[in-house]
Each structure stands twice: as structure tokens, then as C-alpha cells.
Amino acid sequence: MSEKSPFAGVWCPSVTPFNAQGAVDIDALGRHFSRLNDSGIDTLLVMGSIGEFASLTQQERLQLIQEARPLSSLKMVANVSATCIPDMLELAEAAWKNDFDAVMVLPPYYYGQTQNQLMHYFETLDAQLGGKWFAYNFPARTGCDLTPALIAALAAKLPNFAGIKDTVDCLSHNRMMIEETRKVRSDFAVLSGYDEYLLPNLLAGGAGVISGLNNIVPEYFAQMMTAWRSGNLPELTRLQQQIGRLMAIYSIGDDFVTTIKTAVARRYDSMSSGSRNYGGTLNAEQCAAIDKLFS
Fold first, then answer.
1. How far apart are alpha carbons 10 and 40 in whole angstroms?
2. Under CATH, what is the fold of the domain 9-231?
3. Closest Cα partner for 77 from 19, 118, 135?
4. What is the end-to-end Cα distance of the chain in Å, rounded?
5. Distant-in-sequence contacts of 87-91, Cβ < 8 A, 24+ apart
6. How does strand 43-46 pair with strand 9-13?
7. Which of 43, 44, 215, 228 has its CA 20 to 30 A from that of 78?
8. Catalytic residue positions?
9. Pair 72, 46: CB distance under 8 Å
10. How many angstroms separate the CA atoms of 187 and 189, rounded?
């Protein structure tokens, strides 16, 4: 495992609560972070996919960067991805001013990108971001894959390139990403973007996971890291099977963001379940399925 990376372990990509008027609810975010702070996880990611960054205005994103940091002493990373580089740089500057530990960036999306274009994009961005950064590989959303060869080449050249969230539902992709980057950097953090890949990621020499279930049951993932470090195979087996069972949450609703938020709202009564994804509200049968899953 990439223990030399200060970003190894379990990350929660936090949901972004909204109030009844549809505005960002910082009080609810504070309640959410208070629970996560005590769960044993390592890092909070704000404005990831589950954090609905694509539906937030630039001012809302700047507000979240400013107001989220005082709510937790955990490491904190801000996703500053956008289609407009000046907006990204404004968000990154705000992150550094508010003592964030790193930022995260997607590749350009909407337009297809070749590996050559991606190389030039990230090299140019690295020179401007001003601090540690993570790439976010989510080809199902961006239309391009950050290949292990590309990421290893960038990692070898760019010391501030700290790691990658590899959100590809393919264990061999995650494994190859770990193997290629390990050839050039011992401190590079390859984190899986799928909940049930934490243990396979660790077994392959990776750094950990960034996964949505950490909003609901972060203690399971923190316990898995403890069991991994102590070599407790029975506990690892139990937790892997439990997390695998809970993966059913992703097939309950029409969109996973609203479903995760609904689970948090019903289990902890700390926030509204409302999201900015239209038509995602769960019906009574779906809510009952969530209650049963987490009972």
C-alpha cells in the first residue's frame, strides 16, 4: 500500500446538503461533518460527483470552500473541476487560502480528448494550480480514460501531482494504474472510486478508496483499514461482505446522489434528502428498501 502518501486511507466524497429553499445548507453540512470527524476516516472531499459540483454556481462553490474547512480537522480536498480554466484557478486559489490540503481535477469533458491532449492539459494545469492536486478519472462521465501509462508519465514529471481517483468499474484498470505509477513514484496515491474495491485496491498495493457509502457507514471503511493494517483476515472478510451487500443502494433509486442523501437523511436525520437531480425523489417502497438495507 502507498503508506508513504499522506493521502492514503479512506476518503468520504461528501454530499452537499440543500435547505428547503434549495440553497446550500452549511448548518446541515456541519452536522454531517461532525459525525464523519469521529468515524475514523482520513480525508473529506467536497464538491465531488456526489457533492453535485456540476450543479453548483461558482459563488456556491467558493462559499463551500470557505465555510467547509472550519467544520473539520481532517484532511480536506476540493474538487475544482470545471469547463473553464479561470474558474478552476479561482477555486484552487480559494482552496489554498482556506488551508485545503489538495485539489482534484477532472480531464476536459464534453469534447473528446486524445492521450496527447490530456498530457498537455495536465502539464499546463499543473504549472498554474499552485499546490498538490489529484486527477479524477471517470470515463463514464467525461468520455475519455486517463490510462495507466499517461498517469505514470505525468506522475514522473510533476511532483505536485499527488494521486488519482480511479472511478472505473474494472479491477484490472485499478491494478494497472497502481503497478505503472509505482514504477515511478512511491508516494503516488491510487484510490479506487468504488466502495467494494477498497480491499482489492489495498491488495494490489494501492492507497485506499473514495466512495459514497462513507456518507452513511464510514465506520465500516475505517474498520477495514484497521483490520488491514493488523492483518485481521476474518474481520476483513466480514467487512468486505457487508460492504458488498450495501452496494445494493446504488440500484434502488433513479440517481445515486439522491439515494445516498435519502439514506443519510433517514438514518441520521441531519439533512434534507433534496438534490438538484430532477425526478430522483424516492417513493415509499424505495425508502423502505433503504431502511431494510441499513437495518
1. 9
2. TIM Barrel (3.20.20)
3. 135
4. 33
5. 87/58, 88/125, 89/128, 89/129, 90/58, 90/62, 91/58, 91/61, 91/62, 91/65
6. parallel
7. 228
8. 136, 165
9. no
10. 6
DSSP 61: H
- φ/ψ region of 45 (left if φ > 0, alpha if ψ in -120 to 50, else beta) reads beta
C-alpha cell recorded at residue 125: 494545469
| Residue 132 cell numbers, joined | 498538490
Q: What is the pLDDT of residues 231-289, one digit of tens each?
A: 999 999 999 999 999 999 999 999 999 999 999 999 998 899 999 988 889 999 999 99
Amino acid, res. 295: S
> pTM of whole model > 0.85?
yes
210 is in an annotated binding site: yes
> For the chain, which residues make up each domain, given as ranges?
9-231
Residue carrying C-alpha cell 468520455: 143
Give the Cα separation of 142 and 108 in Å (integer). 7
Q: Which sign does the torsion angle of CA 87, 92, 97, 98 carry? A: positive
CB 116 within 8 A of CB 87: no
* 219 burial type by CB count under 10 A (0-12 exposed, 13-18 middle, 19+ buried): middle
